[in-house]
Amino acid sequence: MASNITVSKEVFNFLSDLEKNNNKEWFEEHKPEFKRHQSEVKTFLEAAKDNLNHHDEIEKTKMFRIYRDVRFSKDKTPYKSHFAGFFSRLGAHLRGGYYIHIKPGESFLGVGFFAPNKEDLFRIRKELEMDAGEFREVINQEELKSIWGELRGDELKTAPKGFDKEHPDIDLIRKKQFMFVRNFSDKEVLSPSFLDEVDMSYKAIRPYFDLMSDILTTNLNGESILK
């Protein structure tokens, strides 16, 4: 597995400068520098994908654009002051995704289900309504919890329509997102071991992805819904 590929301090320096000079004139003047750092981070993402493919199946890697969509935002600054990438798992039978966010003081990994569609969300809630025991067992596994901490995500203030607000697992049923986040210090990101740490973190979430993939590819009787 590739482990000698790093994120350089120069990447952080550029992102810090961009945050202070978030305008078209400055960016155009420093575009060659941006391209160089973008290429460096892209190499890191490719290495992370190669590592992932040793224990998972990745369909595609996406590096997000630096340009912000400001059409519906009060913040009109034109550029993001971070680099980010996303790894999509292969096919309809492998659900979930891996996100990485690189920014001075705000670097993190994110995994799970950030914006489940209406059908998936309903299916997850029905599973939890029927029996949340296995779900709780998985998210409380010692290794997973020591690395990723608690399950996160936005949630409703009350029970979703059609669900009992007194249900013993309503704390899970109310959720609209089912994800985990691991934060990293700048020192950790710039460390030679960061790539290995990313892969170890992604590997640790696999029991959760396996369970959620099983839920989202079957009906409540456990029968496959894949064609």
UniProtKB/TrEMBL annotation:
Secretion signal span: none
InterPro entries: CHP02453, UCP028451
Organism superkingdom: Bacteria
One Pfam family recorded for the sequence: DUF2461
PANTHER family, per database record: CHROMOSOME 12, WHOLE GENOME SHOTGUN SEQUENCE (PTHR36452), DUF2461 DOMAIN-CONTAINING PROTEIN (PTHR36452:SF1)
Name listed for the protein in its UniProt record: DUF2461 domain-containing protein
Organism: Flagellimonas lutimaris
